[in-house]
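It is worth pausing here to work through a concrete case rather than discussing structure prediction in the abstract. The textbook approach is simple: state the sequence, then state the predicted structure, then interpret. We follow exactly that order.
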Amino acid sequence: MTSYIAIDWGSTNLRAWHYQAGVCIDERRSEAGVTRLGDRTPAEVFASVTAGWPVDDVPVVMAGMVGSNAGWLSVPYLSCPVALGDIASRLTRVEDKAWIVPGLSVERADNYNVMRGEETQLLGAVELQPAPLYVMPGTHAKWVQMEQDRVLDFRTVMTGELHHLLLKQSLVGAGLPEQQENAAAFRAGVQVGSNDASILARLFEVRASHVLGARDRRHISDFLSGLLIGHEVALMTQQADAASQPITIIAGSALAQRYQQALQFIGMDSVTLEGDRAFQHGIRSIANVLAN
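Step two, the predicted structure:
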């Protein structure tokens, strides 16, 4: 089994794992994402996070925003359609210390898109749970159409970021008390969002409903979450013509459950794959190629 170091280096956080003979023997976390380096260089953060690890003796594979123009080194995207198996042969070496995984892009008149980090999860997912359509919820949710191990196309929906902005920086969430989870509020939001061709006119209604006392002010976050996710799944499944195939959700359990509920509401079957498991499996396959 291969020994290697894996690093998931995003915008706000960094996670690193040291594997020995295929077993994780150490894990470290840092808040030094590429947008939070302060006065340190990426090389200095790398040295700190991997201190005491055999970085000169085993493959070091990094994925995520570390390869962006805001990261350690701007790594070119691989243009879709692309076979995920090609990723391991298209890595970029940085300062003779580590390898950075390239992101993926779509460049068409009807769709311009990019991803960094999710491609590594997809690499693991196609081995663990092959599927024609993957949903990758998060701040910027990805909907990925596959053909075996080839990424044909993908789109991004800014559901998570939009929820945050509306709740924290807009009139919709102004003056709200501390929010509480409420499953009924989430389901109500899903019902509205999935049945409306456009939710632009619905967004102000979220505020009006609690101002007028029609909706509990403590549950607005969950209602808004349901509204946005419900609309997302209804729109994207229609675009992907997903009626005849189960959808695989790659995410942590809490977020995956929300998407499963929304998909179930519109009559769609789905299965889940834990995001960290997919990422680790993808990194391992790359490390195995580097070691052999």
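Step three, interpretation. Residues 220-239 form the longest helix (20 residues). The chain has two domains: 4-117+282-291, 157-273.
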